[in-house]
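Service request form, structural biology core

Requester: graduate student, group of Dr. S.
Request type: structure prediction, single chain
Budget code: on file
Notes: please return the result as structure tokens.

Sequence provided:
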Amino acid sequence: MLYEIGLALLRIIIVFAVALLIVAYLTYLERKVIGHMQVRMGPMRVGPHGLLQPIADGLKLFFKEDIVPYEAYRLTFYVAPLICLVCALVLFAVVPISKTFMITRINIGLLYILSIASVGVLGIILAGWASGSKYSLLGGLRSAAQMFSYEIFLGFSLMGPLMIAGSLDLVKIVEAQKVPLALYQPVAFIIYIIAALGEINRIPFDLPEAESELVAGFHTEYSGMKFAYFFLAEYANMLIVSAIATIVFLAGWKGPVLPGWMWFLIKLFAFVYFFIWVRATFPRYRYDQFMKIGWKIMLPLVLANIVVTGIVMMLI
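Core staff response, request fulfilled:
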């Protein structure tokens, strides 16, 4: 019993320590990649080639003055960023990096991720409402419509692959893929990527923030470490949606020659690089365009994909 508890604690420490380190350095990676895409250097001053920049940013935010607006609802104002961060981090508990290495394995792993992620949305909505600012409130209202809408498309896009795999267990989903499911489900794969961009507030769908319209949207009034929690939660969510795409559509850790965990990380960071590339390439959509894409284009397509998948499975 003690051995099992110790092993579980060791896995928790390793996964969360590595996840937080990767999340911190994703900020560095994004600034570097976008910098090179725009023919500039990116961070260079702190450490060799700017490698210590995330640590410097963390220290700056830790010691920065914590300002709370006079009109803010204080308890909710403090709790909202914690909801976002905690809900993002606990999702790593069920992500299988290989067939044997994960914190815990449950037979409804994918459902667990989708349900906890939907709770994390409340943190952004509460932050916008509790700030006592009209800009923040508008960002919170946008996030309410955007995230709840795109969670529907995200969930429906996973239905086709789940029908083929026949399980919600993330390990069994990978084991069921002799060929990556992205080849069998290209429509679901494309819709998942678009819905994921909307779900994690990434450009071109960062409308709850939209600095050209709302200053900084739902986190306009946040500073110091509370702002850092939102920042970390966004990048943690980007890792999670990349991990789901890797597991469900690209056969997870499966691949030739290299160890499984290396294949998983290669595929994971390919998705992360794609999200960064999209940010550097596309302009922000108008809000009405964004919702129109979801309800008038993506929803009929993803429902048609589920129906076609069911018919083909019955015939075969």
